[in-house]
From TrEMBL:
<dbReference type="InterPro" id="IPR002312">
    <property type="entry name" value="Asp/Asn-tRNA-synth_IIb"/>
</dbReference>
<dbReference type="Pfam" id="PF01336">
    <property type="entry name" value="tRNA_anti-codon"/>
</dbReference>
<keyword id="KW-0648">Protein biosynthesis</keyword>
<dbReference type="InterPro" id="IPR004365">
    <property type="entry name" value="NA-bd_OB_tRNA"/>
</dbReference>
<feature type="binding site">
    <location>
        <position position="376"/>
    </location>
    <ligand>
        <name>L-aspartate</name>
    </ligand>
</feature>
<feature type="binding site">
    <location>
        <position position="372"/>
    </location>
    <ligand>
        <name>L-aspartate</name>
    </ligand>
</feature>
<comment type="subunit">
    <text>Homodimer.</text>
</comment>
<keyword id="KW-0436">Ligase</keyword>
<dbReference type="GO" id="GO:0017101">
    <property type="term" value="C:aminoacyl-tRNA synthetase multienzyme complex"/>
</dbReference>
<dbReference type="InterPro" id="IPR004364">
    <property type="entry name" value="Aa-tRNA-synt_II"/>
</dbReference>
<dbReference type="GO" id="GO:0006422">
    <property type="term" value="P:aspartyl-tRNA aminoacylation"/>
</dbReference>
<keyword id="KW-0547">Nucleotide-binding</keyword>
<comment type="function">
    <text>Catalyzes the attachment of L-aspartate to tRNA(Asp) in a two-step reaction: L-aspartate is first activated by ATP to form Asp-AMP and then transferred to the acceptor end of tRNA(Asp).</text>
</comment>
<feature type="region of interest" description="Aspartate">
    <location>
        <begin position="198"/>
        <end position="201"/>
    </location>
</feature>
<keyword id="KW-0963">Cytoplasm</keyword>
<feature type="domain" description="Aminoacyl-transfer RNA synthetases class-II family profile">
    <location>
        <begin position="143"/>
        <end position="446"/>
    </location>
</feature>
<dbReference type="GO" id="GO:0005524">
    <property type="term" value="F:ATP binding"/>
</dbReference>
Amino acid sequence: MSERVVVKNLAALSDGPVTVSGWVETVRDQKKVQFVVLRDESGAVQLVNPAVREVDPEVEGSAERLATTEAISALAHGSFITVTGELKHDERVKLGGIEVKVATLEVVTAANPETPIAADSSLDKRLDWRFLDLRQPKQALIFRIQTTFEHALRQYWIDNDFIEIHTPKLMASASESRAELFEVDYFEGKAYLAQSPQFFKQMAQSAGFGKVFEVGPAFRADPSFTSRHATEFTSVDAEISWIESHEDVMQLHEELLVAGFTAVKDKHGEQISELFGIELEVPSRPFPRIPLAEAKRIVAERGYEIPRADDDMDPEGERQIAAYVKETFGHDFVFLTDYASSIRPFYHMRNAEDGSLTNSYDLIYNGVEISTGAQREHRVDVLVEQAKEKGLEPEELEFYLDFFRYGVPAHGGFGMGLARVLMLMLHETSIREVTYLFRGPTRLAP
Ligand code: AMO
């Protein structure tokens, strides 16, 4: 291992020799002294080098000092360097009250002199150069937050006796709908990329696992270019047995989110307000619940008519109901419940009193849908009828229908888009900003 000290640990050291490595952020090349700001994954530090502009044969080491001075003058932004030198605490130094006086400097990899992106580059251009874009501290913070959030969810699941599953992403049939399905060649036949772990997380209920979760990729051949859609995204899924209705699923969902938000606020709250300018709020439980039909009435009263009466909430409707919930309950989340069966998949259980409704919900956060959940239909004859009603061929679903032919408890669960949660948590305008490498209709690289 090298002697390297990560920048954030420098402040705790006493004055003396250190080695640091990182990217050149800025160079101030003055006649008598040079300043370099070096950044690594943990922070930035100022390097200082008394400039030597010509060799003085009387002074020992002056040829080396000249070479170092010239190397600094030639440093391009983004080059990766390793420096040995003397750490000095000096409260006059604005950047953290420390600096490193350069003794030796090695250019490990020189960067091209022209940086292809700048702070004002378009999002598309930044995504073309994602590795450079991600060097900004704000970007790295997003993925530290994601790590903390996922870790807290996992901790919750482990504490509550869930089993983690990894379901296949190559499937013999569609899991959500025939639309938005990626078909791939599979030896002599065809396969489909999983749109959701839906069928296999339900299989775990028939297998007697009780409670399962998965965080994994999902694929949708969705040609839209909205700020909330990707063709590949990370889906956070849970499925639980022994429920009475979708209410049990909503309770799990809100507890899980509170655990995730608490961990993120505890660990990153200060940095979030510093870099994103927002105060992260941990939601209080219970989250408000509003049946969809009532939500539509509320939205209409506010002067917005959802274009088609039998339709789902559209994005403007979601914004309107979120504004109402914020004004009325001071809450950023709302469960819209009891969706019409006409706009829900075949596997949602219908309401026992009103078969035109389902025991299902969408979770809206800051005005955007982040999740869908439901109680599932577990009676196979009803399931077959509902599949036919939706134009699906029960023959293609035989493997799935078998799960329900050998005893299965009442169960339900949800799927939640990880990037959507992050986008809304950080008030970002697109999931492209919070997805490590975005995939969309016209983006397959890098
Ligand atoms: P649904 O299709 O509503 O439900 O998806 C669940 C959640 O996944 C996210 N999501 C997406 N994120 C980015 N790009 C997309 N193209 C995209 N499509 C969906 C959203 C959405 O709320 N099997 C059910 C879930 C369940 O009932 O358990 C399902 O997949 O955040």
